[in-house]
Amino acid sequence: MSDHEQLESQIDQWRGYVQRRRAISAGDVEEMEDHLREQVTDLTSTGLDDDEAFLVSVKRMGNLDEVSREFAREHSDRLWKQLVLVPERADGGTNPWRELGVVLALAIGAGIAVKAGIELIDDETAIMRNVGLLVLPFLAGYFAWKRKLTWQVAAALLIPFALLAVVLNVYPFEPMGSTEFLAASHAIVALWALVSVAYAGGRWRSDARRMDYVRFTGELAIYYVLLALGGGVLIGLTVGTLALVGVDFEPVLEAWILPFAVPGALIVAAWLVEAKQNVVENIAPVLTRVFTPLTIVMLLVFLGAFSTAGGLLDVDRELLILMDAVLVLVLSLLLYSISARDALAPPGLFDVLQVVLVIAALAVDAVALTAMLTRIAEFGFSANKVAALGLNLVLLVHLAWSAWLSVGFLRGARTFGPVERWQTRYLPAYAVWAVIVVVVFPPVFAFA
Amino acid sequence: MHIDKDLVAASATPLVLGILADGESYGYAILKRVNELSGGRMQWTDGMLYPLLHRLERLGYVQATWGTSEAGRRRKHYAITRAGREALAERQAQWSVVADALKQVWQDVQMPPTVAEGWA
After folding, report:
1. Helix axes A349-379, A383-410, angle to 10 degrees
2. Which residue of A268, A279, A331, A364 is most buried, as measured by CB atoms within 10 A?
3. Which CATH number fits domain B5-119: 1.10.357.10, 1.10.10.10, 1.10.1740.10, 3.10.350.10?
4. Segment B74-103 mean pLDDT
5. What is the share, in percent, of chain A residues with pLDDT greater than 70?
6. Which residue of A has its CA nearest to B46?
7. Which PANTHER family does this one have (chain B) (predicted)?
8. What is the pLDDT of residues A167-195, one digit of tens each?
């Protein structure tokens, strides 16, 4: 009997090996396995033992590379992995249409929340402060449903959410003040960090889950842009066509379609990213490969311009914000290529390029910062300047330490593990900084 | 005897269609029938049969259905269609032309059998 067990394990191994071929579908594997088993049975009945029969049968099946190529020739479509949004057979026993129902309900819910917010709050800046609070709970709700979040985690999410909501709406912000704008923009970052807890199903301390969330964020941004482009085309066609028959579509568009489509698309994009996880190659790492060398060129041009122009002429907070944007770009390029990198692969040319990129960014930032600091010393601090400087500092620490670790990796002094871990361990610093800007800045700068 | 790859490929479609014209069958049984017909001299690479069957299915020459084997495993059965029978008749006509021509050539050349075998 143990003999047959060995045969079964051999067949299991073979099946696993065949299943890895993309051109060979699950049905084909089943068909070939039936063939293999018949062959083994026939051979053992002629006197071969299981082992010999298995070897002969596998040999007769032919070279798997050639067979798989033949399958690929017949089914070239299979190499283009197809995205199945609603699977035909539910594996877990749940109705596959249920998820679509939940997603659409949440998308419409987010739309209703935004629409109600616009109708009830007759103050544009108040809506700006609250837009994250109105939309992101629905995204978190999707993950809470999908990951079957426990009540404890849900409660742990609701408390900081409620506190943020209170702070954003109770603080007596001065109209059109910069602290209000800073609080509104940084609240979204803080809320995004809360969504990550729901995304990770409560296991937000796990490095792997954090990296998954980074990947998710990148893919979500790309899907959202694609959905927005598609939606823009549809809206353009509708407006143009209706204008020809004398119908002014714009009031409907502004009052109804955009308040529902913009937040709804976010939920739908999140669902698409979840659904495609195993099907489509991630696009964000591909983009980093294209843009890393180009960004290096851009940074070198900056450096050249700074040194030949004989100093920066108009140094104000816009320069700081620009520098923050440059560092965020470099950081995303770094994060997304790390997210797709095989931690066990030896250092390659691209790793060198990445270190060059980070060092160039640090150099550009250093030049801008020294110019900036003298100006701040002259004119004093404002909320905007401190916020931009603080973000710059948070980014600087992240990138400088990444560069240090990467250089060590390139020189063979350490493995890639620490480089990867540093990225995910540092992420909470951004959430902490965002919370500081939302909660501490307004009172310190007198809500101006 | 080793039979040239191109010859195997060219004869595979009419052979499979011909076997299926006798009645519905499945992969392993088709290969066993090929073995019997050729007296064990035609050895196909077993795995290659399935892409071929799928191609015939796509062309509409055969129809596949999932059934169950005696052992209770899922098994795909193939049956020839009307288009398949028409294609088989056409292939048969083509092959008889080729076979006739070859037969005449063999008669004219009168090669020693060992050399002829090596040629094939």
Report:
1. 150
2. A364
3. 1.10.10.10
4. 93
5. 92
6. A61
7. PADR-FAMILY TRANSCRIPTIONAL REGULATOR, TRANSCRIPTIONAL REGULATOR RV3488
8. 999 999 888 888 899 999 999 999 999 99
Q: Is the distance from CB of B66 to CB of B45 less than 8 angstroms? A: no
CB–CB contact A75 B27 (8 Å):
no
Q: Dihedral of CA B18/B19/B25/B26: which sign? A: negative
Interface contact B71-A37, CB threshold 8 A: yes
CA within 13 Å, CB half, A8: 5
> What is the largest distance, in Å, between two alpha-carbon atoms of chain A?
96
For the record, the structure tokens of A125 come out as: 């800046």
In chain A, which residues have pLDDT < 70? 1-3, 79-96, 277-281, 309-317
Question: Among residues 39-68 of chain A, which lie with CB inside 8 Å of chain B?
Answer: 39, 42, 60-64, 66-67
pLDDT, one tens digit per residue, over B48-73 is: 899 999 989 988 999 989 988 888 88
Residue numbers in A near B9 (CB within 8 A): none
Domains in chain B: boundaries: 5-119
CA–CA distance, A443 with A173 (Å, rounded to integer): 9
Report whether A168 contacts A132 (CB < 8 A): no
Chain A residues touching residue B28 (CB < 8 angstroms): 34-35, 38-39
What's the rounded Cα separation, in Å, for the pair A175 and A100?
42
Q: B75 phi and psi, to 5 degrees?
A: -140, 140
- Tokens for A397? 């620490």
Tokens at A283, concatenated: 């696009």
Look at residues A442, A372, A407, A439 and name the one whose alpha carbon lies nearest to residue A164: A439
Residue with structure tokens 């033949």? Answer: A70
Both structure tokens of A81 = 């992995």
Helix (H, G, I), strand (E, B) or coil at A20: coil
pLDDT digits (tens, 9 = 90+) for A256-274: 899 999 999 999 999 988 8
Assigned token pair, A72 = 């690929």
Q: Which of B48, B58, B69 sits opposite A70 (nearest CB)?
A: B48
pLDDT digits (tens, 9 = 90+) for A91-115: 444 566 888 899 999 999 999 999 9
Q: Does B95 touch chain A (CB under 8 A)?
A: no
User: Kind of pairing, strands B74-80 and B62-68?
Assistant: antiparallel
| Min Cα separation B63/chain A (Å) | 15
With beta carbons less than 8 A apart as the criterion, state whether A307 and A368 touch: no
Name the residue in chain A with its Cα closest to that of B27: A35
What is residue A379's predicted lDDT score, i.e. its pLDDT? 75
Among A282, A420, A426, CA closest to A351: A420
Which of A32, A42, A74 is closest, CB to CB, to B47?
Answer: A32
Contact criterion met (CB below 8 Å) for A50 and A4 = yes
What's the CA gap between A315 and A372, in Å, rounded?
A: 6
Residue type, A230: G
- Contact A448/A178 with Cβ under 8 angstroms? yes
Q: What's the pTM?
A: 0.72
- Selection from A384, A438, A432, A382 nearest residue A170 by Cα: A438
Contact residues for A405 (Cβ-Cβ < 8 A; gap 6+):
A414, A418, A419, A422
